[in-house]
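Predict the 3D structure for this chain.
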Amino acid sequence: MGKGKLWMIGMGAALTLAACSDEEADVPVPEETEPETVASPEPRAQQFMELWQAGEYETLYDEFLTERAKEAFGEETFIDWQVELEEQLSLSEREIDWQLGEEPWLKNEPADVPLTISMDSVIGEIEFDKTLSFVYEETEEAEAGEWFAEWDPSFILPNLSEGDNVSVQISDTARGEIVDRNGSVIAGNTDAYEIGVVPENFDRDDYTERLAGLLDLSVEDIDAELEKPWVEPHHYVPLGTVGPDREKLNRLFAIPGTKRTKVTMRHYPYGKSMAHLTGYIAPITAEQLEERSGQGYGQGDIVGCEGLEEIFETELRGKRGGKVLIEKTAQNETITAVDNSSAAGETVELTIDADLQQEVYEEMGGEPGTAAAVDPYTGETHVLVSSPAYDPNDFIPGIKETRFRQLTNDPDQPFFNRAAASYQPSYLMQPITAAVAMKQGTLDPAEGIEIDGETWQKYASWNDFRITRPNPGVANPIDFEKALIHSDSIYFAIQATNMPDDSFLEGLTEFGFGTAFDYPVPLAASQISESGTFGSEGQLASSASGQSQVRVNVLHTALMYGTFLADGEMKKPILIRDAAEENLKQDLLNPEQSEMVRAALVQAGEEDGHGLAGKTAVIKTDDGDMGWFAGYDPNVGNLSAAVMMEDEEDAAAIAGALFSDD
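Done. Predicted structure below.
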């Protein structure tokens, strides 16, 4: 073939290629399809979170899970297992912090929602992060499509899979102690022994009665425990707990078939004398479980009841910890899903002098009454006692029903905290009335007035109402000191009615009447009257000597008398050692006026024959003679005290124990 032909063939091939290229260039390129967007998943996510927090698992399963999730796990896993684990781990107070990404929301792409899940449990707070995907699906019920959640068991607990077994190891912590101002333990922990028997080794006929006596149980109590359905001959059956009583323990261990397990037990060394302050601990009730929902309590836990054990429950309890273990059946291994550290309870340090309080309680001899002693310069409470009382040790590990009924039915009401109540003060009110009148400038302590007769009324309009004084034979003129020594009700009624307008009412308010103190233990506020005002001038006149509707709390009474020592300052009452000192009232009296009251109180004490500076009063009641004392030791002056005995006249004798060691 010649060169010309080759060229022609080449030219033909080139033309053919060019034609093909032109054809391809003319073929239209299909446009890219825009992704289909759909409505935001936020409303569905919001509903899901709310139902999840509320535990509405059936609704979530029926209306919010993807078909794939339903097929993979089913109702048994999604509903029943979640409920079982909540009960097993005491899961509660679930909080879900979640956020959604930004638009657009595409039909064929999941919407990922980052979550932080937190909840309380038997081992404290559990918190973990997850991402929950919502998938857009079209269903028969929602033809337009809707968002559904892709759920799996790891949303219950971290790393949880279907078929796993969950267990928990609880790390209990030592309950914090309550100590007095000197570091003496008034509520603490001690070694004890749980005592039980193995039925096949225990001769019930020979030893049940002896064992019952040592454990403070009845024979019927022991029989009931040994005959429970779960008991087998080789099983250990716990029956009771015994504290550090070596003699009793030796006698128990001498009984064949008994076994012991060392445990820690709450102990109240000062027993009854501190009972109304400490309270006690006891197994949590169903009602308390509900009240403390979300705080990590479970069935069988111990909780503070009454007094400081209840008030400082959070601090004393400490932080419980532990582990949630997951046995991974598929991998044949056990992993730790949650590991929470524990922390021991705090020590609560009081201003109370426990030895002094016990001495005063014993001086009361179990008779109904109450006493308080405070440092007038700091407000610290050294004594706050109520008699009679129960022994908080009776509640450890659990009070017997017969003993509880006995205490409840006791006419002296050992459960009643008299230190928290208020009572008519009678003549104890007179120095307070005088202090208000001195500050008002209407009472001159040195000025005497003429008072004749046993009764008095300011106006005839008082009709039959008159003020009666107990010692009408005292020679005139009657000045402040003479009136205080002899409890002259007429003198103080005159002083109260001489004050202008509402001055007496305002002065008593300055002294703390009507004020509920910010104090850890709730105390009844002292009152001027039930309405907080004087309904008539006759009521005002009788209130000057603590009659009518005047009521005082024993701690407040000690504080008021403390103002005479502290030259007119009243400190806020303090019970917790590290609480800040604070002036509750100032300038109630000036130093000169305070000295005049102190001198009169010394004379009143000498007249009464007890050697203390203060006032006594005896109030006739249907149940007997109520005795009061309020004052201090003039030789020391470091404590101001008040004592009330419901049916014992000589309250000053009880007060003597408050100052005997100071």
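The chain has 21 helices and 25 strands.
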